[in-house]
């Protein structure tokens, strides 16, 4: 089937060219596919979403970590990986998270479908994947299977600021930098990678109410506030709760520390991830509320108003 990829991509070309288009973040343009904005090329693109929808097969024991870009993907990847693999890798210098970027430990579905050799060759192991796909665009086999989904979102003001910094580090050199004002305007209009931001969050929030045992809804802010309880909650949800003995031995604290911003960012000052981006671009401040150092008060208020209006009636707080 992999041999058909080139053909499939070719088939998508015409389709993509006919889609609504806006100025892009990472690439020159973003295109709207199934109600959300994606790049036409680059790592996670419309093409890879389409291939995933066509070819990706979920297993009932799979675990999917879903985020919008800049909502804490790197962190949740590290946490889930550390929790699931805690008996295989104890907290020693050779722990994969201290050898590799979390993005190299947990593949995106959107990249996995392009690999000739699957990441998980052992049919009995739990497969841990990540994705940025909106709920309604997930491959049908994920909807049809009983696999678990962890969704993490982050307050839109910090997502926006994080996104502007990130894209200006990695976008094509031939393109101008995205200014704060420009980025703000695009984001408010809903034009952001995998956005509209609010629709992405709402899709998973509503699904988590409908399928509470299958979908866990987390926020970056809550994870920051109390990482320990959230790590335990995550382990419970993933079906591997900490034993009393583990708790007494401080295993939860070890995982929190292993995945801390300081530890991971120190490890990732050099080198690149498999897909070529520098390791360091995934670590900037790692704080809640850094938006206030960049956006004006007014910009913050406007985003708050949009968020209040879009999330009306839903219990989503940051
Ligand atoms: P800032 O730019 O606000 O610092 P993603 O992983 O989805 O790309 O999101 C990146 C954001 O998560 C960045 O936010 C980054 O600094 C922050 N981040 C990365 N690793 C983290 C960690 N271990 N703990 C907390 N935040 C982290």
From TrEMBL:
<dbReference type="GO" id="GO:0008146">
    <property type="term" value="F:sulfotransferase activity"/>
</dbReference>
<dbReference type="Pfam" id="PF00685">
    <property type="entry name" value="Sulfotransfer_1"/>
</dbReference>
<dbReference type="InterPro" id="IPR027417">
    <property type="entry name" value="P-loop_NTPase"/>
</dbReference>
<protein>
    <recommendedName>
        <fullName>Sulfotransferase</fullName>
        <ecNumber>2.8.2.-</ecNumber>
    </recommendedName>
</protein>
<feature type="domain" description="Sulfotransferase">
    <location>
        <begin position="60"/>
        <end position="314"/>
    </location>
</feature>
<comment type="similarity">
    <text>Belongs to the sulfotransferase 1 family.</text>
</comment>
<dbReference type="InterPro" id="IPR000863">
    <property type="entry name" value="Sulfotransferase_dom"/>
</dbReference>
<keyword id="KW-0808">Transferase</keyword>
